[in-house]
Amino acid sequence: MGNAISHHSLGNMYIRGQYVEKDLKKAFVYYEKSADLGNAIAHYDVGCAYFKGIGIKQNFKKTFELSLLS
């Protein structure tokens, strides 16, 4: 479980390397946790990650599905 905003903030920190070592895979994990908790902005960020292949294999179908949720 957890807090959607906290998970999203951790994702931002990992994607930027802010206060932690930059880790795109960890950023994706935290964005996905936040999205699972209902954060619409995180749905967008997960969709962007799938679109660009950031921390996860590129997947345009998932990008489209997530864009409908954000």
From TrEMBL:
<dbReference type="InterPro" id="IPR011990">
    <property type="entry name" value="TPR-like_helical_dom_sf"/>
</dbReference>
<dbReference type="GO" id="GO:0046677">
    <property type="term" value="P:response to antibiotic"/>
</dbReference>
<dbReference type="InterPro" id="IPR006597">
    <property type="entry name" value="Sel1-like"/>
</dbReference>
<keyword id="KW-0046">Antibiotic resistance</keyword>
<dbReference type="GO" id="GO:0008800">
    <property type="term" value="F:beta-lactamase activity"/>
</dbReference>
<dbReference type="Pfam" id="PF08238">
    <property type="entry name" value="Sel1"/>
</dbReference>
<protein>
    <recommendedName>
        <fullName>beta-lactamase</fullName>
        <ecNumber>3.5.2.6</ecNumber>
    </recommendedName>
</protein>
<keyword id="KW-1015">Disulfide bond</keyword>
<dbReference type="InterPro" id="IPR052945">
    <property type="entry name" value="Mitotic_Regulator"/>
</dbReference>
